[in-house]
Write a structure and sequence with these properties.
The chain has 341 residues and is an alpha+beta fold. The protein has 11 helices and 9 strands. It folds into 2 domains: 89 residues; 230 residues, 2-Layer Sandwich (BirA Bifunctional Protein, domain 2), CATH 3.30.930.10. The relative contact order is 0.11. The mean pLDDT is 92. The chain binds phenylalanine (PHE).
């Protein structure tokens, strides 16, 4: 019997000293496996004199159960401890604020373009595109600017090594392309796209920018139609009540011609860097399609008339958002771009 209580003490003490799963397994093999100390103690029963067997059997059973359950408790405790250690090691603080995913957004120019498309689409205009690399013929000659015409200086551009091939300086050559594709059908289109200018880059002018050309050709189209269309457009784009100013101007491809200004939203008309201290911001050029251009496009100017306009979406974005320098648009600085949700 003292053997048994010694065995119990020894098993308990060693179990308490076990520190990890490997130690626990060694302990189990030593005490509980088939040839372990506990089965050995049970086996000794057979060698005892008959009168001692009952008491020994009882005691060894109690011992077996106690050691077995101590083992199970230790297994559970060790498992819990290792789980807790794992959790602290791979600590996850669920109270930390999450990381916001970066979401891209439309460029301010794209946003204006979409608004412009939608307004003109509702007025029955179709959207066409021209090409960025144009011919001298379409960019100048057929727009009533023959070689050597002084107005070409206002639209100086980048030339390719191929004679007569250049980067278009305005979307107006698209007028010729659309007319050639439609004559003598009536036309009502807008032509958005990029333009290029060889000129000094300043707060108001870039070497690359967008334009949206508009063209309507048909019978009995008047300057009144042009004005009505542009006023309706401005009301929808800027909200009702902005002032528009039609200023006499000159373009070789329209007659009469006008430039249209909106009152400067940045300075409220007082005068600032963007509006060149005039209180007005020029947003487009327009006019009645010149008879020469109509004829170049395949329309008889005796029968047909038309109007055209060309506007700058960056100018419009500047006006809408109070941006005072056009160079921000294509610097691709995300701190600028991400302001336009
Ligand atoms: N193409 C002109 C420009 O770039 C704008 C314009 C378009 C003027 C159509 C009249 C008619 O300045």
């Amino acid at each position: 019997m003292t053997d048994l209580s010694q065995l119990q003490e020894q098993a308990d003490a060693e179990l308490a000293a076990v520190a990890d799963e490997a130690g626990l397994e060694a302990w189990r093999i030593k005490y509980l496996s088939r040839k372990g100390l506990l089965p050995q103690a049970v086996d000794r029963l057979g060698a005892l004199p008959r009168e001692e067997r009952a008491a020994y059997g009882k005691a060894v059973n109690v011992l077996k159960q106690s050691v077995q359950s101590a083992y199970e408790a230790r297994v559970a405790a060790l498992h819990e401890a290792s789980l807790a250690a794992e959790l602290t090691a791979e600590g996850l603080d669920v109270t930390l604020p999450g990381r916001r995913p970066q979401v891209g957004r439309l460029h301010p120019t794209s946003r204006i373009l979409r608004d412009v498309y939608s307004i003109f689409a509702h007025m029955g205009f179709q959207i066409y595109t021209g090409v960025d690399v144009e011919s001298d013929l379409n960019n100048f000659q057929l727009l009533n600017m023959p070689e050597g015409h002084p107005a070409r200086d206002m639209w100086d551009t980048f030339y390719t090594l191929t004679p007569g091939v250049l980067l278009r300086t305005h979307t107006s050559p698209g007028q010729i392309r659309v007319m050639h594709g439609h004559a003598p059908e009536p036309i009502r289109v807008i032509l958005p796209g990029k333009c290029y200018r060889y000129e000094q880059v300043t707060a108001r002018s870039e070497m690359m920018f967008y334009q949206v050309e508009g063209l309507a050709v048909g019978e009995n189209i008047t300057f009144g139609d042009l004005k009505g269309t542009l006023v309706a457009f401005a009301d929808q784009l800027f909200g009702e009540g902005r002032r528009l100013r039609f200023r006499c101007s000159h373009f070789p491809f329209t007659e009469p011609s006008a430039e249209v200004d909106v009152d400067c939203i940045i300075c409220g008309g007082k005068g600032c860097r963007v509006c060149k201290y005039t209180g007005w911001l020029e947003i487009l050029g327009c006019g009645m399609v010149h008879p020469v251009v109509l004829r170049n496009g395949g329309y008889d100017p005796e029968r047909f008339s038309g109007y055209a306009f060309g506007m700058g979406p960056e100018r419009i974005a500047m006006l809408r958002h109070g941006i005072d320098d056009i160079r921000y648009f294509y610097n691709n600085d995300v701190r600028f771009l991400e302001q336009f949700a």
